[in-house]
Design a protein that fits this description.
Family (chain B): Belongs to the class-I pyridoxal-phosphate-dependent aminotransferase family.
Number of domains of chain A: 2
CATH topology of the largest domain in chain A: Aspartate Aminotransferase, domain 2
CATH superfamily of the largest domain in chain B: Type I PLP-dependent aspartate aminotransferase-like (Major domain)
GO biological process, one term (chain B): fruit ripening
Largest interface: A-B, 87 and 90 residues
Organism (chain B): Salix dunnii
CATH architecture of the largest domain in chain A: 3-Layer(aba) Sandwich
Number of strands of chain B: 13
CATH topology of the largest domain in chain B: Aspartate Aminotransferase, domain 2
Structural class of chain B: alpha/beta
Structural class of chain A: alpha/beta
EC number (chain B): 4.4.1.14
Shape of chain B: globular
Largest sheet of chain A: 7 strands, mixed
InterPro entries (chain B): Aminotransferase_I/II_large, Ethylene_sulfur-biosynth, NHTrfase_class1_PyrdxlP-BS, PyrdxlP-dep_Trfase, PyrdxlP-dep_Trfase_major, PyrdxlP-dep_Trfase_small
Largest sheet of chain B: 7 strands, mixed
Strand order of the largest sheet of chain A: 2-8-7-6-5-3-4
CATH architecture of the largest domain in chain B: 3-Layer(aba) Sandwich
Radius of gyration of chain B: 24 Å
Distance between the termini of chain A: 74 Å
Radius of gyration of chain A: 23 Å
Shape of chain A: globular
Number of domains of chain B: 2
Oligomer: heterodimer
CATH class of the largest domain in chain B: Alpha Beta
Helix content of chain B: 40-55%
Order of helices and strands of chain A: HHEHHHHEHEHEHEHEHEEHHHEEHEEEH
Number of helices of chain A: 16
Chain lengths: ~450, ~475
């Protein structure tokens, strides 16, 4: 029995009490609504359909098939290298066979257009850990990374929370399909300088989340040149590289560096993960690939705080070194994602909704700006809420991605079955029909 | 491809040496890596005795796995669960995983306490857990008190990226390295004088490297101390299941359950399966806090080091098997006790003493101060190099654990098979006897018998003796 004493609370750290973890954003209200009333084909067909979660569920059968034929149990049998060695392995270099398999997989995804050295691969528990780790290495507290908008909301936490580093946005807009421009980069840089903030790097996501589009080669070249001129780093988050609908449309920064003979590449670092391309977010498999020796060494040491389970490394080493499996997987996965994308684009079109032309990812970037009461963030949130409560789908408002133009929404299409997607599209269609009817019946006051 | 280094482009954290790998501790590792012992292929290589791993009970685990293929989502029997588990990245962790861990933690403590699964927070091994706790409790520049000697990894885990400081609380061999109230007060006052804010006290129970547990009175005294100073208490209990003989392990969880005045918001436990079960590769670290705000914050931070859901699933299955767990804990203790016994007996035969209060852990805290030329850390390092390069054992010198008295070494005994252990012991015997033989070649057995009683002094006599030892004696090399 403990006697509780009335004490002034001992403070926790500033990091602990700050809100930089980002979970108080309105974005999360959508999740809550879904959790309280989740859609289920049979048991809850009027529930909220989750379209805010960028998961890849379209190719599980391929993984399951592989596992049926290549059971983990073979690793557990006596005589085989076995569980013991695996369970003891905590070397932060990571399993060599796994690094080799990852390097080879990353090469395949890029159609062999870039080479990856397994000894430059640093393993981390997910891209979440990789992005934070790189930030710790490349920037000091109060320094900044430039990040093109719109961007993945998680960056606010991953890049800033415990590191104390800031994000200065590079504003992109629909006038040129949200591509990064030199003007925008320079404006962001000047803005940072004016605030007395030291810029340490540019962080791009290619293919982009939430745009669902790859970055053009010329833009990548421009970003590299900009980084060189200002002597800053480039981090390229390529976690959706295997989710491009056609292999030829994706240009990795690695290809550009190879074309330049790797001149000046020690400022470039690539983040990769198996969470999206392989649909294994639970396994926590992230990597940092750096062309800078000191970054590789330091990142490796730092990865001690977030190593990948050796059990998982072992399983995936086998899987990803199976050439037949990986080739078939990459091809089939792309194909299925492309089909899904076409299905949703078509469905939205017939409802009168336009999307940004996309070619990658697990989502599309939908333009609902014509529906806004007011072309403001407030108007966007109001529309989002009515979609959540009337249409009963959870989508992500552009403001949660720091988009400077209100009215854009990210809609995920790969985290559900096709029938469920049909249901969602039907609901959207009804919603749009209803709005048209409303508009006719009560025309705007003149 | 070789890429130019461009150091000034990196952060201060990256450019400094907070990673801790420049410590001499790692020299032994490098020596081992370049010449590792193998019973068949390299019998004269260096035996790794610097690695606190628990390898004694894998046969039990392997048996269980063979009989429970459903524990893996990557087998025919378990693949139905694959999809759901592979997608699961909720930082609350699989409920069955948290339940199983809470139950296991209680069992390891003889079911004298219970743990609430909702307070179990995952992290990337105890390494990740410690760093996360430091991020939650302290700002850069603030400090934790830590009793010496302590695990060298704390210097990196608690300080590197957090900017938090560590202030040693000195403990001494004169009272078997117990943590005293006086030492705690001294450390706290020193911090105050240096204008450093102390946010907490970190204790390691059972202790690495001592292999001892804290008694009830010390634990109570510690609880009183932290409540009076209103600072946090972080208890690293990762060796809890390695307590192999009396007295029984007392967890801080037991103390706070007693009728003692304690602000529960100050108490946090760090746990892991790396030592108790021998699974360091699986990266299963746990933070258990009695403070709701810390649970909430640590859980959010765990996003940076979640346990692979594949592993969570397997562990949940394994640790829910009550019969297996009971058998494992009992058998592990038995085997550790046996190893410990063989080792301490073997060392005693050549008059090497170990900390006599040790009854836990995967290592011994060995007193070689009698072999030192002089009571300095330089002499300790010189002796250590002799042990690595001549005796061919990688042991860990006390200075790497911030021990304030030279001459102590940590020797691990649970990371090798019986045969290798015997080889290690015979090398030690040879080393010690060689020195005895070279100094006084005509000594009789009766004399050698008295060696056991007064070893440190006799070694001192040898060293100071005007008779010069033969050149091939390792002790000569140590002196020079």
């Amino acid at each position: 029995m403990v006697t509780e004493i009335e004490q002034p609370t001992v403070e926790l750290s500033k990091v602990a009490v700050s809100e930089t973890h980002g979970e108080d954003s309105p974005y999360f209200a959508g999740w809550k609504a879904h959790d309280e009333d989740p859609y289920d084909e049979s048991s809850n067909s009027s529930g909220v359909i989750q379209m805010g979660l960028a998961e890849n569920q379209v190719s599980f059968d391929l993984l399951e098939e592989y596992l049926e034929q290549n059971s983990e149990a073979s690793n557990w049998a006596e005589g085989a290298p076995g569980f013991r060695e695996n369970a003891l392995f905590q070397d932060y270099h990571g399993l060599k066979s796994f690094r080799q398999a990852m390097a080879s997989f990353m090469e395949k995804i890029r159609g062999g257009r870039a080479k990856f050295d397994p000894d430059r691969i640093v393993l981390t528990a997910g891209a979440t850990a990789a992005n934070e780790l790189l930030t710790f290495i490349l920037a000091d507290p109060d320094d900044a990374l430039l990040v093109p908008t719109p961007y993945y909301p998680g960056f606010d936490r991953d890049l800033r929370w415990r590191t104390g580093v800031k994000i200065v946005p590079i504003h992109c807009d629909s006038s040129n399909d949200f591509q990064v421009t030199l003007e925008a980069m320079e404006a962001a840089y000047r803005h940072a300088v004016a605030m007395n903030i030291k810029v340490r790097g540019v962080l791009i996501t290619n293919p982009s989340n939430p745009l669902g589009a790859t970055i053009q080669r010329s833009v990548l070249e421009e970003i590299l040149d900009f980084a060189k001129r200002n002597n800053i780093h480039v981090v390229s988050d390529e976690i959706y590289s295997g989710s491009t609908f056609s292999s030829s449309e994706f240009v990795s920064i690695a290809e550009i560096l190879e074309a330049r003979g790797y001149k000046d590449s020690e400022r470039v670092h690539i983040v990769y993960s198996l969470s999206k391309d392989l649909g294994l977010p639970g396994f926590r498999v992230g990597t940092i690939y750096s062309y800078n020796d000191k970054v590789v060494t330091t990142a490796r040491r730092m990865s001690s705080f977030s190593l990948i389970s050796s059990q998982t490394q072992h399983l995936l080493a086998s899987m990803l070194s199976d050439e037949k499996f990986t080739e078939n997987y990459i091809k089939t996965n792309r194909e299925r994602l492309r089909k899904r994308y076409e299905m949703i684009i078509q469905g939205l079109k017939t409802s009168g909704i336009e999307c940004l032309k996309g070619n990658a990812g697990l989502f599309c970037w939908m333009n609902l700006s014509p529906l806004l009461e007011t072309p403001t963030r407030k108007g966007e949130l109001a529309l989002w809420k009515s979609i959540l409560h009337e249409v009963k789908i959870n989508i992500s408002p552009g403001s949660s991605c720091h988009c400077s133009e209100p009215g854009w929404f990210r809609v995920c299409f790969a985290n559900m079955s096709e029938p469920t997607l049909e249901v969602a599209l039907k609901r959207i269609h009804s919603f749009m029909d209803q709005r048209k009817t409303d508009a006719i019946q009560s025309p705007p006051q003149l | 491809m070789v890429f130019k280094l461009n150091n000034h482009l990196l952060s201060m954290i990256a450019s400094g040496n907070g990673h801790g790998e420049d410590s001499p501790y790692f020299e032994g590792w490098k020596a081992y890596d370049s010449n590792p012992h193998h019973p068949m292929e390299n019998p004269n290589g260096i035996i790794q005795m610097g690695l606190a791993e628990n390898q004694l009970c894998f046969d039990l685990i392997q048996d269980w796995l063979k009989n429970n293929p459903k524990a893996s989502i990557c087998t025919h029997e378990g693949v139905n669960e694959f999809r759901e588990i592979a997608i699961f990245q909720d930082y609350h962790g699989l409920p069955e995983f948290r339940n199983a861990v809470a139950k296991f933690m209680a069992k390891v403590r003889g079911n004298k306490v219970t743990f609430d699964p909702d307070r179990v927070v995952m992290n990337g091994g105890a390494t990740g857990a410690h760093e996360t706790v430091a991020f939650c409790l302290a700002d850069p520049g603030e400090a934790f008190l830590v009793p010496t000697p302590y695990y060298p990894g704390f210097d990196r885990d608690l300080r590197w990226r957090t900017g938090v400081k560590l202030i040693p609380v000195v403990s001494e061999s004169s009272n078997n390295f117990k943590v005293t109230r006086e030492a705690l007060e001294n450390a706290y006052e020193m911090a105050k004088l240096d204008n450093i804010k102390v946010k907490g006290l970190l204790i390691n129970n059972p202790s690495n490297p001592l292999g001892t547990i804290l008694d009830r009175e010390t634990l109570r005294s510690i609880v009183r101390f932290i409540n009076e100073k209103n600072i946090h208490l972080v208890c690293d209990e990762i060796y809890a299941a390695t307590v192999f003989s009396q007295p029984e392990f007392i967890s801080i969880a037991e103390i706070v359950q007693e009728d003692i005045e304690c602000n529960l918001n100050l108490v946090h436990i760090v746990y892991s399966l790396s030592k108790d079960m021998g699974f360091p590769g699986l990266r299963v670290g746990i933070i258990y806090s009695y403070n709701d705000a810390v649970v909430s914050c640590a859980r959010k931070m765990s996003s940076f080091g979640l346990v692979s859901s594949q592993t969570q699933y397997m562990i949940a299955s394994m640790l829910s098997d009550d019969e297996f767990v009971g058998k494992f804990i009992r058998e592990s203790k038995t085997r550790l006790a046996a190893r410990h016994g063989v080792f301490t007996d073997g060392l005693a035969q050549v008059s090497i003493k170990c900390l006599k209060t040790s009854n836990a852990g995967l290592f011994l805290w060995m007193d070689l101060s009698g072999l030192l030329k002089e009571k300095t850390f330089e002499a300790e390092m010189a002796l250590w190099r002799v042990i690595i390069h001549e005796v061919k054992l990688n042991v860990s010198p006390g200075c790497s654990f911030h021990c304030t008295e030279p001459g102590w070494f940590r020797v691990c005994f649970a990371n090798m098979d019986d045969q290798t252990m015997q080889v290690a012991l015979s090398r030690i015997r040879t080393f010690v006897n060689k020195d005895v033989d070279t100094k006084k070649p005509k000594r009789t057995l009766r004399w050698q018998g008295s060696l056991k009683l007064s070893s440190p002094r006799i070694y001192d006599d040898f060293i100071n003796s005007p008779r010069s030892p033969l050149p091939q004696s390792p002790l000569v090399l140590a002196r020079n």
